[in-house]
Predict the 3D structure of the following.
Amino acid sequence: MIAEQLKHFWSELKPFNATLIPVSKTMPNEKIIEAYEAGNRIFGENKVQELISKQVELPDDIEWHYIGHLQSNKVKYIAPFVSMIHAVDSLKLLNTINKEGIKNNRVIKCLLQMHIASEESKFGLTADGILEIINNADWANLTHVNVVGLMGMATFTENKEQVREEFKKLAGIKKKLSGQVLPANVKMSELSMGMTNDYKLALEEGTTMVRIGTAIFGPRACMIDG
Ligand SMILES: *Cc1c(COP(=O)(O)O)cnc(C)c1O
């Protein structure tokens, strides 16, 4: 089941050149191993405690993507191993990731999260907030972060046109930034958008990373996603 779903997504994403980030949050290690044995090495998690316990128990060659809201005081727990932090939503958080990157002697890949949904509960920066960070952060000293693109979550709605417009907005900011001179440690190569219910629209709007949980691992027992 998991193996078949992975194969399905890999072939569906291939023409779009997009990366599959299977989201294993709340899933037991057995399911992660099943996906690992099917050849998958990338997993997305959204809780620090859960991620660190999985990381010690599971194979070392897994690339862990942290996709949830991250508090600055918890960066230290994941900085030693995390592959990418998808939801950076403040300069303070970026500075902390840099500091922990220095301590661990590694450069940590990050995405800036933009708030594109109409729901207030979803985190993220405004377009101006993103420009503000890119134009005004002390990039010369941010030696241990690499901002590689943007991330966003669309509104949870059946209204496809609304979701498409939200994805377009995010893709538009990426395009705009790609056309300007950026600091050396900022690149606009990735766009992390699209989940089980809206990844097809995200692919049409230029996503490079889709974060899929339910369609690969089945429903989560606890639907409170944090
Ligand atoms: C849970 C989660 C996903 C995956 O959601 P599904 O609807 O199960 O595919 C993607 N992105 C983030 C940030 C999540 O928290």
About this structure: Residues 23, 25, 46, 67-68, 153, 195-197, 211-214, 225 surround pyridoxal-5'-phosphate (CB under 6 Å). The beta strands are 19-22, 42-45, 63-66, 84-88, 108-114, 145-152, 186-192, 209-212.
